[in-house]
Amino acid sequence: MINPTELPLLVFAVSFLLLWVSEAVGSKLRNRIEEVHEDFGVILTATLTLLGLILGFTFSMAVSRYDLRKLYEAEEANAIGTEYLRLDLLPASDDENLRVLLREYLDQRILFYQTRDRERLQRIDDATAQLQSKLWASIRSRSLSHQTVMTSLAVSGMNNVLDSRGYTQAAWRNRIPLAAWTLMGLIAISGNLMVGLYLRRLGSHRSLLMVLPAIVSLSFLLIADIDSPRGGLIHVKPENLISVAESLHSGAYQ
Fold it and tell me: What is the pTM assigned to this prediction?
């Protein structure tokens, strides 16, 4: 099931519509109320200030998760490159098959970052899991037949390679909770409703009612885009993994 926040444009459209309607409803109610107490402005200011703080805090959460995904991509590339070098510690007859498997594994990890199709992503995950099993089985058999300090380093490096994928997967699943989005949306709706209620009759300037909904919706769009690993325009590119793959194919790691 697709999380709605994975579609930033949908978040923008729905939030803008809801906020604009809530502000318009507040404006209609304002026309039916003879007087709005002046102290209501204090409540409105406090609500909009709270909304701004929550938007800023949520944006910070999204950016920190984006930075974490970038960090794990770099660590994963480093782990694969290091392990490729450590395969030299194994007997010469054993390391070539592992190198082929490791290059195939690296190609699958690059595809993981680049694909946006869920069905293809499932196939990539399945292929990656199979390669992980083959890599571990191969390195395990080598270590059991040659129990030395050198082979232990190769086993440790392979363990880091396999662990780094788990850390990456966890970071990509770590999203802003839907409950947080719901609460933030409710506060935004309340704020826009009060803005419409507080404004005097606008006459020909009713287009001003669209300003605050547009600003808040754009903020939601940016947060959703950064927080969505595969939706929107802002993605973590596997630059480090691609650099390692180019080095492996060119023989720079030999």
Answer: 0.84
pLDDT 10s digits, 7-58: 888 899 999 999 888 888 877 776 666 555 666 777 888 888 999 999 999 9
Q: Is 136 exposed, middle or buried (0-12, 13-18, 19+ CB in 10 A)?
A: middle
**What does the pLDDT look like over 44-73, one tens digit per residue?**
888 889 999 999 999 999 999 999 999 999
Nearest Cα neighbor of 41 from 198, 196, 190 is: 198
pLDDT in tens, 84-131: 888 887 776 666 788 889 999 999 999 999 998 888 999 999 999 999
Cβ atoms < 10 Å from Cβ of 66: 19
Q: Where are any strands of DSSP class E within 23-168?
A: none
Contact, 174 vs 5, CB < 8 A?
A: no
Q: Which amino acid is at 195?
A: V
Backbone angles phi, psi at 205, to 5 degrees: -105, 30
Q: Which two tokens stand for residue 72?
A: 């794990």
- In whole angstroms, give the CA distance from residue 37 to residue 50: 21
Site of tokens 């697709």: 2
Report the alpha-carbon distance of residue 53 to residue 145 in Å, rounded. 60
What does the CA dihedral 150, 154, 160, 166 come to, rounded to 10 degrees?
-150
